[in-house]
Amino acid sequence: MSGEKRKDGESMFSSQSADSVMFQSFSNLDEGEAFKNLGDESLLGSRGSLVLDPLSYTKALHARVEFTDDGPLGKVKYTVVSYYAKRFEALRRMCCPSEMDYVRSLSRCKKWGAQGGKSNVFFAKSLDERFIIKQVTKTELESFIKFAPAYFKYLSESIASGSPTCLAKILGIYQVTKQMKGGKESKMDVLVMENLLFGRNLTRLYDLKGSSRSRYNPDSSGSNKVLLDQNLIEAMPTSPIFVGNKAKRLLERAVWNDTAFLAVSIPFIDVMDYSLLVGVDEEKHELVLGIIDFMRQYTWDKHLETWVKASGILGGPKNASPTVISPKQYKKRFRKAMTTYFLMVPDQWSPPAVMPSSEDSNTPQD
Questions:
Q1: For the chain, N or C: smaller number of CB within 10 Å?
Q2: Contact 91, 169 (CB under 8 A)
Q3: GO CC annotations (predicted)?
Q4: Burial letters for 43-61: b for 16+ Cβ neighbours within 10 Å, e otherwise?
Q5: Nearby residues of 190 by Cβ (< 8 Å), 6 or more positions away
């Protein structure tokens, strides 16, 4: 996202009279070379065959690595498939200090119980807390494989033009296969994304979808609790989130751009159910935010669920707003909610107030 450049590739938008909004951004490191690899041209992965049923048509874009390690029960064989290896490498050159630093960070990770995450989904953090590793389902993986070229193209155009965006950056997607002695095999697909909250001391953390249905966390006490839409609405009379005029306009523009991209039906994006993660850093008077969980496409099963719930076939009020809605409907609802959730206060970028002249005033003059 465009704005005042800070160290480590961050971009800060501040207002003097209210909280500022911080969006993770890209540095200019090797930007020209990276743009080439983020474009639409075909990129070849490293040597080695890749046979994955629904994904085989894009195998030339992926890299495969095999190695062994000595474990307590003998040698263990690992196979790692790096999806869109060259394009992700180009993206990381723009937002990571170096490829070696990225590898070093991922070489030491710990399992992490993410608040608000789906049950039975594996989460981990690098020990330096710069990156988050999250397990993805087969459906999510197949969805991303389809719209990944559009994802890289959107990011490259946003960077080149300075257009605001607050998408949390996915920096790599991998399939890890572990084969034990005796042939026992386990497999997991994971993504690596930036940790938006790295180095932050947050007093509140929200996961916002723009919906009020099942969006309340009754256990709001203690630190690191992820609060939801209804928690924010409940707190607005006493603890609203204020932003300055410039920060509010930048936030709205970023949300508008990103939701327009995610709702596109062609080529193959059609994403819904994403969230805006918002962290309140009261010490620095800043908001840290980013759109997360944007890998779930509106597939035929979601179409059917929307129709069944809206029709009332399975009971419940007919024509009630369904929990699952189309990407275009989700986009509209999300934009409207994010506009109302953050209250604007005047700053130096606000238009000047127009005071009535003495001729127009009805107040008697001395």
A1: C
A2: yes
A3: endosome membrane
A4: bebeeeebebeebeebbeb
A5: 122, 133, 134, 135, 136, 173, 174, 175, 176
Number of Cβ atoms within 10 Å of the Cβ of 213:
12
Distance separating alpha carbons of residues 365 and 358, to the nearest angstrom: 8
Going by C-alpha positions, the residue among 348, 330, 124 that lies closest to residue 245 is: 348
Please give the backbone phi and psi of residue 348, each rounded to the nearest 5 degrees, phi first. Answer: -70, -15
Left (φ > 0), alpha (ψ -120 to 50) or beta: where does 30 sit? Answer: left
- Say if residues 176 and 190 touch (Cβ distance below 8 Å): yes
323 three-state secondary structure: coil
Residue with token string 């890749």: 50
**What's the full length of the chain, in residues?**
366
Contact in structure between 122 and 135 (CB atoms under 8 Å): yes
- DSSP character for 10? E
Strands across the sheet with 131-135, in order? 63-71, 74-83, 170-179, 185-194, 131-135, 123-126, 109-111
pTM for this prediction: 0.75
Cα 279 to chain centroid, rounded: 13
* Degrees, nearest 5: CA angle 48-49-54: 145
Exposed, middle or buried by CB within 10 Å (0-12, 13-18, 19+), for 79?
Answer: middle
Three-state DSSP class for 302?
helix
